[in-house]
Amino acid sequence: MSTLGAPLPAALIPDCTEPEAHHTAYRSAKINDAIFVCIARQGRRWKVELDAMSSSGPTIPDEAVAVLRSAAEALVLTDTVTQANISPDYISMWAIESEQRAREIAAAFHAALQGLRQLYIAAPIQR
Fold this sequence. Notes:
The chain contains 3 helices and 4 strands. The protein is an alpha+beta fold and 127 residues long.
């Protein structure tokens, strides 16, 4: 069974505000066959970004994407984030109030995305 790396705790989510930091973190994720995750400052607020295309794991099915989308919508409804884009391979959320909150959200979605991919590897859904 493929392993997709370990979810990163909030404190270890890289700050990719600077383009070079983003490039370095993405390259590291690709080398380690891991799902890319980072936060970045945008003005006074923060953005969360995850990119599963940095790893060779499978695309998660639509049913699993719905779980991630539901969680993101809940964050939008509570004004924790102003916008979110969720797809099977890419997640972004922005206008998050603080760095700590962005780290918490990034870590949670990173763990969820990895867990859903591992579940799909273990028990593939027949389409």
